Every structure is written in C-alpha cells, then in structure tokens.
Amino acid sequence: MSRRFPVCNAKEVIKVLRKHGFELVSQSGSHQKWRHENGRQVIVAMHGSKPIPVGTLKSIIEGSGLDVEDFR
Hints:
Elements: H1 10-19, E1 23-28, E2 31-35, E3 41-45, H2 54-64
Antiparallel strand pairs: 1-2, 2-3
C-alpha cells in the first residue's frame, strides 16, 4: 500500500460518494452539498478536471466518514 495521498478530481470524488450512498442535496455556484442518510455531509467544489488539493480532499474524506482507500 502506498503511503501517498490519492490525487482525485471532483468527478472521481462524486463517483465514490454516490457508490457509498451520498446524494446531492443542493448546489451554490460550483459547490455541491452531498449528504448521506445517516447525516454525514460534505461539500465538493466542481472545478472541471483539476485535481482537488490534498487538504481539501482530506477534509472531504474526514467529513464523509469513508476510508482513504475508497478514493484510490
């Protein structure tokens, strides 16, 4: 297993969130709010195919309650 953090764009993150039961609840500009039925919520900024910065991706993973391996 690699110790490096994965590099993902917004479309890849959304694909993982959908796979784990998250649904789009609202959008304001380029920011989408995704919520799970158990109350977990994350905001994903849609900026084309640009990679999401590592700190932002860490925050998304933490807020979603998913494992970093789900995003590899």
